[in-house]
Amino acid sequence: MEDMRSPRRVVIVGGGAGGLAAAVAAGRLGARVSILEKANRVGKKLLKTGNGRCNLSNRNISPEGYNCPEFVATLLSRIGPRELLEWFAELGLWPCEDEEGRVYPRSDTASSVLDVLRLGCADVEAEEICSTEVTAILPRSEGGFRLLTRESGEFTADRVIVSAGGGTALLRPLGHRYVPFTPALCPLKTDTDPIRGLSGLRVKCAARLTRGGEEIAAEQGELLFRDHGVSGIMALDLSRVARPGDRLSLDLLPEADLHSLRTWIRSRRGLVNEEREVLTGLFHRRVGEALLRRAGGDGEKLCELIKDFPLTVEGLADTANAQVTRGGAELSAFDPLTLESRLIPGLYCVGEALDVDGRCGGFNLHWAFASGMAAGRSAAR
Ligand SMILES: Cc1cc2nc3c(=O)[nH]c(=O)nc-3n(C[C@H](O)[C@H](O)[C@H](O)COP(=O)(O)OP(=O)(O)OC[C@H]3O[C@@H](n4cnc5c(N)ncnc54)[C@H](O)[C@@H]3O)c2cc1C
Q1: pLDDT tens digits for range 29-38
Q2: For the chain, which domains are there?
Q3: Pocket test residue of 24, 36, 49, 324 for ligand 1, highest count of atoms within 8 A of CB
Q4: For residue 329, what are the β-bridge partners?
C-alpha cells in the first residue's frame, strides 16, 4: 500500500507544456512535485504557440499525424482529444474548435492555457523553481535520483520526468541513445525564379512532394509564397520530410481535371483579345502573370502548369523559428504507455524531448500534454 504520509517525490525537468501537465497529473495522485525550469518563468513557449492563441489539440489527432505512429498509438487511444479536453475542462479551460478541427481556448489567448495549468499546479502544491538549469541526473545506489543544477544546488527525487523539450540530450550520459535533433515545421526554401513577384500571396492548392519520381508526401490547403520559397501550414507540414533536391509540385486548381481545364482555357483564349487576360478572373493577377510567363504563350503548357507547377526544394528556411525539433531520445528505450525508461526505472521522458514530432494543427502540444499526463500519473503511483 502506498504510504500517504510520505508520498513520492517527483521532480520534473522543464516547465513547458509536457512538464506542467505532468506536474498536475502527478500532484493529483498525491505526489510531492517540484518543477525545475531553466527560464525565469514556466510556460514561456506556450504563450507563443498558435500565434499567441495556442492550438492545443485537434479533433483529428491520429497516430498517422506523427513520425512514429506505432509508438504513439496506444497512448493516443487512451488520451485522445476528448480525454485531453475533458481534463482541461476540469482545470477550468473552455476549449473551442475551428472548422478544421483545431482546438483553441475560447478566450483565443494562449495565456488562458498556461493560467489553468498553473492553477492546477498550485492546487496540488507543485512548486515551481525557475532560473534553475538541470545539468545532470544521477541514479542513486539506494534508489531514486540526484539532480545537479547550475544555479540552485542539488535536488533528490524518487522519480524524475524529463520534459526539457527538443535540443537537450540530458539522458545520454545515462545510456539513452538520441536521434539527432533537426528543425522541422518551418518554411521551405525553393528556386525563386518561377515564383518571382508572388511573395505575400496566399493560394488554395494541392501539393505533392516527390523524390526520384516517388511521392513522399501530399497536402491540400493554403500556401503562402515568400521571397525565398513557400510557407503556410502546408509547407510547414511538408518540411517534416522535405530534403534538398525534392520536387514540389503545386496543383493550383485541384477542383478541376486537366480535361475541363483545357476546355476552359481554350474558350478563354478564343474570347479575350490579349493572352495576358486568359487567366483573369481565375487567379490573382500576379499568379496569372507567373503562370503565363512560364508557359511562354503555349496553351497546353499553361494547362499543365496550372495542374503541376514545379518547384525544387533547396532546404528549410527560417530554421531559428522552427516550431519543433525532429529527433530526441530514441523511443525503443521507453514504455509507450507510461513513458518510463526501460533502462532506468523511475526515469521518464515526455513531449518533444522524445523522438516524436507531429503535424501542424495541435498535434505537438497534444502529444506534450498527453505524454506529460501519462508519465505524471505513472510516476506518482
Ligand atoms: C512559435 C511556436 C508556435 C507553436 N505553436 C504550436 C501550436 O499552436 N500547436 C502545437 O501543437 N504546437 C505548437 N508548437 C510546438 C509546441 O510548442 C511544442 O511541441 C511543445 O511546446 C513541446 O512541449 P515540451 O514540454 O516537450 O517542450 P517545451 O515546451 O519546449 O518545454 C521545455 C521546457 O524545458 C526547459 N528546459 C530545457 N532544458 C532544461 C534544463 N536542462 N533544466 C531545466 N529546464 C530546462 C525549457 O526552458 C522549457 O521551458 C509551437 C512551437 C513554436 C516554437
Answers
A1: 999 999 999 9
A2: 9-183+324-380 (3.50.50.60), 188-319 (no CATH)
A3: 49
A4: 178, 354
